[in-house]
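Still learning. Any example?
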Amino acid sequence: MRLYVVQALLFSLFLLPALHGQSLGNAGTIDGVVTDPSGAVVAGARVDIQNRITGYKKSVTTDVVGSFRFPNVPLNSYHLEVEAAGFNPFQQDVSVRTAVTVAVKATLTLAGSATLLTVESGAADLIDNVPYAHNDIDHTQLMKLPTSSPGSGLSDAITLGTPGVVADSNGFFHPLGDHAQTSFSIDGQPVNDQQSKAFSTQIPTNAVQSMELITGTPAAEFGDKTSLVVSATTRSGLGQTKPTGSFLAQYGSFGTVGEEATLGLGSAKFGNFLAF
């Protein structure tokens, strides 16, 4: 029976509506053009973005017109680097804080042409420009957390990844001493209901790409909750030209069996992601 369910889920991957290559919810997009000193475009250049704190890292190659694009980027600060044969590397810090596309124009210099070394103190690698205290958790870190139950995995991740949050019974948690004062923003959609297995099914942690856990005074866009704001970006198949997924099976000492799997597939313009 389980085999038929899995087959049906895999088949539904190709029936789901395609998600066009725009930003999804509160996720951001980084795009740009790579040129040489004369203004001509540079095709085949490698462009990397990464956040050394969360471990998020993506790489793309510029097309024939020298353009590149990173869709569905979680809101955070990133270090962007461009490399191409015969040119010096280009580096820039990029802050993604809204769904508005961040445009980057990378002008490469010829290798060996620079003769002046300038040391500046204005580097801003991974320095946040937001006025509130927060903690960021990426998908790779979420998968390492010792969650106790599939039904309350999100609560476990929030409790373990946020200062001042303590666990409670039935999958609840208390943020900064308050009760029911947590606001969730899932891909930009506000959800103010309590998230616990006693009231509703939580979003599975294997469907979350990144979470920003705001413990300071939140911006007005998150409403009037005062203790904790969970801004989550879900995973997507955008840009995954090769099928990518995972499968995990668990067996407990009382004979309980747990299974979970993910599958993502897409291109630069559409993508689907399944978590079950």
